[in-house]
Backbone:
C-alpha cells in the first residue's frame, strides 16, 4: 500500500525553525516528484515547495523563498522541508504529495492537481 507520512510539525515561536519529513512506504520515491502544500483554516490549499525526482529542480512559493529549503534523501525514501524564520502566517496543516514523474526527471510543480498521492498532514503552529 502506497503511503506518505509527514512528521516534524509542532508549536514554535516566531523566528524559530522546524524540519518536516515526508516518509514513503510501499513505494520508492526515486520515481516521484514531491511537493509540500499547506492549508490554513478558512483558506485554500497552497503550494509551498516542490522537488523533482532527480532532485535537480526545486520550486518555492514567493512567500517562503529564502526561508524554506526542500531536499530529498532517496536512500532513506524521505523528503524534507527545512523551515526557518517562521512567521505566524506560516501556521497551517502541511501536506506532502507525490507526483509519478519518473526517475531522473527535472520536472517539479506547485500545482496540486498533478499529484496522485497525499499524506495525512502535520500541524505547524507559529505563535508566541
Residues:
Amino acid at each position: 500500500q502506497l503511503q506518505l507520512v509527514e512528521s516534524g510539525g509542532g508549536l514554535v515561536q516566531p523566528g524559530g525553525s522546524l524540519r518536516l519529513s515526508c516518509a514513503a512506504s510501499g513505494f520508492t520515491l526515486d520515481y516521484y516528484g514531491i511537493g509540500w502544500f499547506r492549508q490554513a483554516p478558512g483558506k485554500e490549499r497552497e503550494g509551498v515547495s516542490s522537488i523533482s525526482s532527480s532532485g535537480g529542480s526545486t520550486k518555492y512559493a514567493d512567500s517562503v523563498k529564502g526561508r524554506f529549503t526542500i531536499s530529498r534523501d532517496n536512500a532513506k525514501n524521505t523528503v524534507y522541508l527545512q523551515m526557518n524564520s517562521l512567521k505566524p502566517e506560516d501556521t497551517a496543516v502541511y501536506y506532502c504529495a507525490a507526483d509519478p514523474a519518473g526517475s531522473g526527471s527535472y520536472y517539479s510543480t506547485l500545482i496540486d492537481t498533478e499529484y496522485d498521492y497525499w499524506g495525512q498532514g502535520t500541524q505547524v503552529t507559529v505563535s508566541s
Summary: The longest strand covers residues 18-25. The radius of gyration is 14 Å. The mean pLDDT is 96.
